[in-house]
Prior knowledge:
Helix 5 packs across helix 6, helix 8 runs parallel beside helix 9 and helix 11 packs antiparallel against helix 12. The protein is an alpha/beta fold. The strands form 3 sheets. Strands 2, 3, 4, 5, 10, 14, 15 and 16 form an 8-stranded mixed beta sheet that branches. Strands 1, 6, 7, 8 and 9 form a 5-stranded antiparallel beta sheet that branches. Strands 12-11-13 form a 3-stranded antiparallel beta sheet. Helix content is 37%, strand content 24%. The protein contains 13 helices and 16 strands. The protein is globular. Bound molecules: S-adenosyl-L-homocysteine. S-adenosyl-L-homocysteine binds next to helix 3 and helix 4.
Amino acid sequence: MSAHDRNRRLADRAGAPPRPMSLREHIAARIRAEGPMRLDHYFGTCLLHPQWGYYTGRDPFGTTGDFTTAPEISQMFGELIGLWLADIWISSGRPENVHYVELGPGRGTLAKDALRAMKRYGLQPAVHFVEGSSALREVQQKAVPDVRWHNDLSTLPPDDPLLFVGNEFLDALPIRQMAKTPNGWREREIALQDDAFIFAAGGRPMDAAVPEEWRGAEDGTILETSPAQAAVMYELAGRLSDQGGAALLFDYGHAALHAGSTLQAVKDHRKVDPLAMPGSADLTALVEFGTLARIAQSRDVRWIGTAEQGAWLRRLGIDARTQSLAKAAPHHADDLRAARDRLVEPGQMGALFKVMGLSGLHWDGGAGFD
Ligand code: SAH
């Protein structure tokens, strides 16, 4: 008899429900006990459940993993970010005691490349990572040995200027979805049908949570919102306002609120059903930069702008950097050009990915956004 069957048998005898053996069983048991689950709870549980979360126990990046991110495509990505940070630091008068803070640093590759570039300009900040996965913390330690970790932004140093960087961090934060039904707007929740997870309309009217111009939308319209992203943005902008510094946040997303579900699950570089393999597939949603900009602007900071990743990288000099690296290593020239195209070309990552820049009011405006 397997451990699983034994466990069930013992539980049946004791009259208690069997102890879950997987994230699927854990979520199903919670839905049976408490009713349908909100999407943000499902999302957060799938990614960072302490035992079975997607990021908790694995390194999902690269060709052998589930997906590839910009810093893993080329060192040029992190280097140009380091260059931008060094430039804004120098033109802001080289403030002392600055800290580099990366949100969701993955393998630590971006930080390593950015820190190397900053060092060339005399910028050697203390390094902080906001990271929820213990498996990834181990990988990050190898890339950047001298780092302090945080579970969220609340424990970051309280006084000194902070240089924030995040790539594909905000898209990993939980979202909620509202759907227009014949009974008005309702939250989209996850329910059980036989043993499968399905979307179902929540019981409570949600019309008041939907912007006025969307209230009369057709039945079936879906809107997304991410209180978790909003909270991070609010805190980050507040830190820049109080402490000075700058931020670069890269993600794929829209400039303004769009209708439709952007919830996406990826496994082995392929899209899968977001409800089909909880904890085994990555979950993301597109970021809505308009709302994030408004939240930042509600604090006393400079919103430098939101640019397409491709245009921003070109203004920072990715073409010249590609050429000089190709000249130094001619046998890698084709790979370098392919990596550059992947990051920059509109049909690849150049247009769907955006970057938002922020800085403290006493800091400079930064390059690449005009
Ligand atoms: N920036 C990296 C990784 C992006 S994947 C890159 O570009 O390659 C998302 C990262 O955010 C992972 O490191 C993941 O563990 C982390 N993460 C996701 N949700 C988080 C949360 N709520 N709190 C802290 N870290 C989180």
